[in-house]
Structure formats: structure tokens, C-alpha cells
Amino acid sequence: MKSHIRLTAHILLLGYTMLLSYWMIWGFGRIKQPEYSYNLVPFSTMASYFPIRDMGSLINIVGNIAVFVPFGVLIPLAFRVGFRKMLGFFLAGLFLLEMIQLISRRGSLDVDDFMLNSIGVTLGYGLLGVVRKWRSG
């Protein structure tokens, strides 16, 4: 891969990571909560959103997927890694951010977020594969 593509991917990855970190810790009016918030039971948070009854539920589900799609594109471009390593890097970074949310009490550590975010990064990786196949002819 051309070095300018890798450099651009590194820059975009760093910038998007910083933006998303801001959103997850301080954005959208997040304030320090009086208690720690966490969910370690798979599907318990998602169950409250299905069936989708309002715009808030839809935004939560789609948002938790969509905002992580860029990582599925940028991590492989920046580091020339396959799906498993890309997912490993992603989950390590996501775990760090989720722990910061928990410890700072400016969000919650939620296993359902991990699942939805992983769907997003997987969709991004798949999209990158489609684009690569299309470009190669």
C-alpha cells in the first residue's frame, strides 16, 4: 500500500479516536454521576430498546454501531492487519475507553455497547473489503 494512504489513515485514526474519546467522556452533556454505572449481563440494555418504540432507542442502537464503522476501515489501512488483529486492537482501545467512563463516572461500562460497537467495526472492515475488491477489478 502506498505510504501516503497509511499516513493519512494514521492521522484520521488519531483524530477520530480523539473525537470519539471526547464524545464518550465529556460530550453530549455528560456530567460526573454520583455512582458507578455498569452492565455485565449481555443483552440486558439492548432488551430495553427492542422493539424500537422511539427515536431515542433507534439513535442508541444505530449510533453505537455507526460511529465505530470508521475504525474497521482505518485500523487495517493504518497498520496493515487482518480482521483478528484489527478486532483485537479495537477491543483493547474500547475497553480502555469504557474503563475510563466507569472510573470517571461519566458514562457506563456496558457489555452491550461492546457488542454493538463490534458490529460497527466489523461492518467497516467488510466495507473496506468491498471497496478493495471493487477497485481491483
TrEMBL record:
Ranges that cross the membrane? 7-26, 58-79, 86-103, 115-131
UniProt xrefs under InterPro entries: Teicoplanin_resist-assoc, VanZ-like
Specify the superkingdom: Bacteria
Q: Where is the VanZ-like domain?
A: 11-130
What Pfam families does the entry give? Answer: VanZ (PF04892)
Q: Which UniProt keywords apply?
A: Membrane, Transmembrane, Transmembrane helix
UniProt keyword Membrane present: yes
Q: What is this protein called?
A: VanZ family protein
